[in-house]
Design brief:
globular, 263 residues, alpha+beta, 8 strands, three-stranded antiparallel sheet, three-stranded mixed sheet, 14 helices, single chain
């Protein structure tokens, strides 16, 4: 009798333990893996799963201060930009060294993290309970491996302006031929809030100057961002100044822009 009750208790405990165990949140890469299977086989953005990473190490000197990074050649070669370099067009064959003086080290670090892991910090996670995408808990309170506070902006020394980090990553991905990274950066930027009008405008100008004119997804994103913040733009008068100057963001909003941003 006692033995039977013990077995029932053990069974109940195991059942409860099994139900209490929650599945980890799915990352953007996990969620999109199936949909991207065909595309990745045609033009992969990241190294093949199970790669042994035994290729040569390439040293990269990034930014005016020549900050050093190291990466495997086969990982870098998933980018058409670096694949051309690694084939010997610009690479110093003796030292396996690449100079990128115009790149920002903090941006290149995110790109390199993406090439190895399929995402960059803070990661994009799918909240199953809310059925919504969100950025990981940067404080680490939810055991997501947070690294502390992360700035959504970055100072771009070449333009002497503060820009949205995801926008700069998007434009860098455009140069490197990493289409999936572009989509990831755009989705992450869409989750940002409380962005200053001046930062939105500066980032939009930078994006327009560093992407093709037919990049409709990026322009639609900024249009939605500006419309969502139109009340703030009205109060600040920033958009009116942009329209008076005939800026590209005014052109983006189209003929209805006076109705959106002017009383």
């Amino acid at each position: 009798m006692f033995s039977r009750r013990t077995q029932q208790s053990d069974s109940f405990s195991k059942h409860r333990a099994g139900k209490a165990t929650s599945k980890p949140k799915r990352s953007f890469r996990d969620h999109a893996a199936t949909a991207r299977k065909v595309e990745k086989s045609r033009k992969p953005d990241s190294p093949p799963a199970g790669s042994t990473l035994t290729s040569a190490i390439v040293t990269l000197c990034v930014g005016p201060e020549q900050r050093l990074f190291a990466a495997h050649e086969d990982v870098l070669s998933t980018s058409p930009f670096f694949a051309a370099i690694c084939r010997g067009q610009f690479l110093e064959s003796s030292s396996k060294r690449v100079n990128l003086p115009e790149e920002l080290p903090e941006i290149f670090s995110s790109v390199l993290e993406y090439l190895y892991k399929g995402d960059y910090y803070p990661r994009l996670l799918h909240n199953k309970r809310r059925n919504a995408w969100e950025l990981e808990d940067i404080t680490g309170n939810n055991n997501d491996g947070g690294r502390g506070a992360v700035e959504s902006t970055v100072y771009h020394s070449a333009t002497d302006q503060t820009l949205l980090k995801d926008t700069v990553i998007y434009c860098t991905a455009e140069r490197y031929g990493l289409d999936e990274l572009k989509r990831l950066a755009l989705r992450k930027q869409g989750l940002q809030s409380g962005i200053q009008c001046s930062t939105i405008l500066a980032s939009a100008r930078y994006a327009y100057a560093n992407t093709p004119d037919n990049d409709s997804k990026l322009r639609a994103h900024y249009l939605a961002l500006v419309i969502r913040s139109r009340s703030t733009f009205k109060r600040s008068g920033t958009m009116q100044m942009e329209m008076e100057l005939g800026g590209k963001l005014y052109v983006l909003t189209g003929p209805k822009s006076p109705d959106l941003f002017m009383d």
